[in-house]
């Protein structure tokens, strides 16, 4: 045991303290690859986490059946492929970040032993997006990984959507669902994928398997839900609502002014009809008669010849 631990420490200096860097999001899964296509000639495969033994396949003892060490942090989270010994860690949280070490030994025409290291860390990720908005899935490839093949396999509701492969900056896209045409954008510098203009029919769970070179595969999951209008629509709605309120206020003011004018006009007409004459002089000789009325502050004379 001490010998293996010493070899693991030495491997850190050979491969670099951090080895292959893997950046995932909280709740995602990641598969760490052994580079093996079969276990022929391999006797022992061991996985370690921060110096603690977590999983192994000992073909001399139990054929190719994986054995997992009791560790509450990894309960129901580890899955070791019996054909390749690749290790998958599901539902990753902050307590699963750190240094993973791989030890392989066997006899292929002579005894051999190899060591690899993987540094797993968390990065922030948007999991809930709104209709008409965009979502970007970050994988944060390193400068060394940028020239490797990056292979995206995207599924929506368990059905394949598209495959995107980039090699040395050249991007090749294979669409399975045409509704995603011109909406998938891959950043050839970072390897991140953006899905633009999410629609209502795009709602539901998504899965994305991102294989970088032949070292590891990141399993990303996110959900699209129609939780309301997009951030770009909300300001437009607010402005429209404000204009409607202003128009309603102006309409009420105009209506009240017209109503007051109509009421004042009716009052003036009623006053003229009900006023009594101030003076009524009757000329008995039929020569002349004058009636004087006072209405709304004005004197009117009415004469009859």
Automatic annotation (TrEMBL):
TM region positions: 233-255
Keywords: Membrane, Signal, Transmembrane, Transmembrane helix
InterPro entries documented for this protein: Ig-like_dom_sf, Ig-like_fold, Ig_sub, Ig_V-set
Signal peptide region: 1-19
Keyword Transmembrane helix recorded: yes
Coiled coil: none
Domain Immunoglobulin residue range list: 19-123, 124-227
Superkingdom as given in the UniProt entry: Eukaryota
UniProt keyword annotation of Hydrolase present: no
Pfam family, one: V-set
Name of the protein in its database record: Immunoglobulin domain-containing protein
Organism expressing this protein natively: Triplophysa rosa (Cave loach)
């Amino acid at each position: 045991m001490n010998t293996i631990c010493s070899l693991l420490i030495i491997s850190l200096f050979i491969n670099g303290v951090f080895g292959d860097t893997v950046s995932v999001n909280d709740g995602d899964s990641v598969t760490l690859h052994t580079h093996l296509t079969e276990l022929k000639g391999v006797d022992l495969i061991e996985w370690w986490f921060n110096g603690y033994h977590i999983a192994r396949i000992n073909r001399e003892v139990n054929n190719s059946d994986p054995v997992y060490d009791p560790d509450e942090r990894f309960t129901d989270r580890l899955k070791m492929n019996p054909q390749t010994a690749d290790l998958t860690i599901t539902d990753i949280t902050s307590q699963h970040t750190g240094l993973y070490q791989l030890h392989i030994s066997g006899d292929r025409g002579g005894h051999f032993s190899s060591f690899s290291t993987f540094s797993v860390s968390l990065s922030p990720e948007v999991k809930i997006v709104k209709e008409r908005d965009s979502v970007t899935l970050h994988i944060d490839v390193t400068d060394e990984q940028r020239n490797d093949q990056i292979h995206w396999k995207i599924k929506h509701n368990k059905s394949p959507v598209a495959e995107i492969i980039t090699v040395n900056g050249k991007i090749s896209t294979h669409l399975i669902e045409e509704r995603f045409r011109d909406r998938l954008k891959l950043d050839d510098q970072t390897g991140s994928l953006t899905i633009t203009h999410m629609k209502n029919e795009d709602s539901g769970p998504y899965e994305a398997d991102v294989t970088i070179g032949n070292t590891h595969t990141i399993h990303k999951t996110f959900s699209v839900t129609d939780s309301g209008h997009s951030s770009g629509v909300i300001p437009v709605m607010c402005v429209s609502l404000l204009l409607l309120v202003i128009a309603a206020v102006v309409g009420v003011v105009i209506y009240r002014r017209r109503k007051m004018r109509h009421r004042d006009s009716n009052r003036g007409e009623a006053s003229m009809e009900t006023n009594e004459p101030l003076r009524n002089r009757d000329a008995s000789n039929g020569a002349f008669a004058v009636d004087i009325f006072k209405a709304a502050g004005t004197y009117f004379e009415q004469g009859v010849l």
